[in-house]
Amino acid sequence: MSDQQPGRAPGAHMAYVPPQAPAASDAYRRWADVLVRIAALIAFLMAAAFVASLVLLVRADADTQNAAYGYLAVVLWAGIALAIPALLAVGIPGVVMRRRVRQQRTGPS
């Protein structure tokens, strides 16, 4: 018996070639854009809630009759804290998908 494997020519070398990802479809590109836009909207709403909470705190601090505004500010902070996982869950896949689309447009580097 010989040491050669059947079907291989003697002296032929096997080289590792990384698998190529399939091309991104139009639907994939659209979803990448949708996810990034949703993440931008969530980030904008979080920033607006933070500014509104600061305004509410200033109003609550100005007069003891407006103390309820401080509690509203705390509710907004809770909303911001709850929105962070949603922002990450939407933003990270959107950025990764967009990066993949951009790499396929420019070609392998």
Mind sketching the topology for me?
Blueprint: H1 26-62, H2 68-106
Helix pairs in contact: 1-2
What do these coordinates show?
The chain has 109 residues and is mainly alpha-helical. The protein has two helices and no strands. The longest helix is centred in the last third of the chain and has 39 residues. The chain is rod-shaped and about 90 Å long. The two termini are 45 Å apart. The model has no long low-confidence stretch (mean pLDDT 87).
What is the compact description of this entry?
The chain has helices at 26-62, 68-106. The chain is rod-shaped and about 90 Å long.
Question: Any descriptors?
Answer:
70% helix
The portion of residues assigned to helices is 55-70%
Secondary structure: number of strands = 0
Strand content: under 5%
* Backbone shape: rod-shaped
Sequence stretches where pLDDT stays below 50 over 5 or more residues:
none
Number of helices: 2
